[in-house]
Amino acid sequence: MPDETPADDTSELTATRAKLEATEQELNNYKLKLADFDNARKRMLRDAEIDRKYAVEPLARDLLAALDNLDRALDAAKRAGDTGPLVTGVSATAGQFLDALKRHGITRIACEPGTVFDTNLHQAVMQQPDTKFEPGQVVQVLQHGFMLHDRVLRPVSVIVAS
Predict the structure, then answer these.
(1) Which domain holds residue 30?
(2) Domain shared by 38 and 84, yes or no
(3) Which terminal residue of the chain, N or C, has fewer Cβ atoms less than 10 Å from its own Cβ?
(4) Are both 76 and 115 inside the same structural domain?
C-alpha cells in the first residue's frame, strides 16, 4: 500500500474512532434502556403482588359491619342474661366470620382496657378521667379494630383515660 498517505491513515483512524464512540454510546443507551425495562418489570411484579395481597380489603370492610352487628347482638344477650340456643348460634356465626377473615389475612387487633393508647392502632373517640387507669391508657373498647396482613384495616375505637 504505497499509495496511502499519512493523511489518509489519520482520517481513517478518526472515522474509526468516531464509529467506535457512536457504537459505545449506543451500547450505553441500550444498557440504560435494558436496566429501565428490568426495573419497570420488577416494579410491575411487586405492584401486582401488593394488589393481590390486599384485594380483599373492600369486601372485608363491608363484612366488618355485619360482624359488628353480631357482636352487638351478643353483648345485648349477655346483658340480658340470655344463654339460649339463639345466643349460641349467633356466637358460632361470629366465630365463623372471624375464622373466614383470618384465612384471608384479616385479624382482630388485640386491645383490652388498660392497654397503652397507640395512635397507629387505636382511634380515640373520647377521653374521660378515670381513677383505675393511667392517663393514655384505654378505658373502654367501643369497636374492635382489624389488621389486613400488616396494614390497619380499621383502627380500634376506644375511650382513653385523661
Answers:
(1) 1-53
(2) no
(3) N
(4) yes
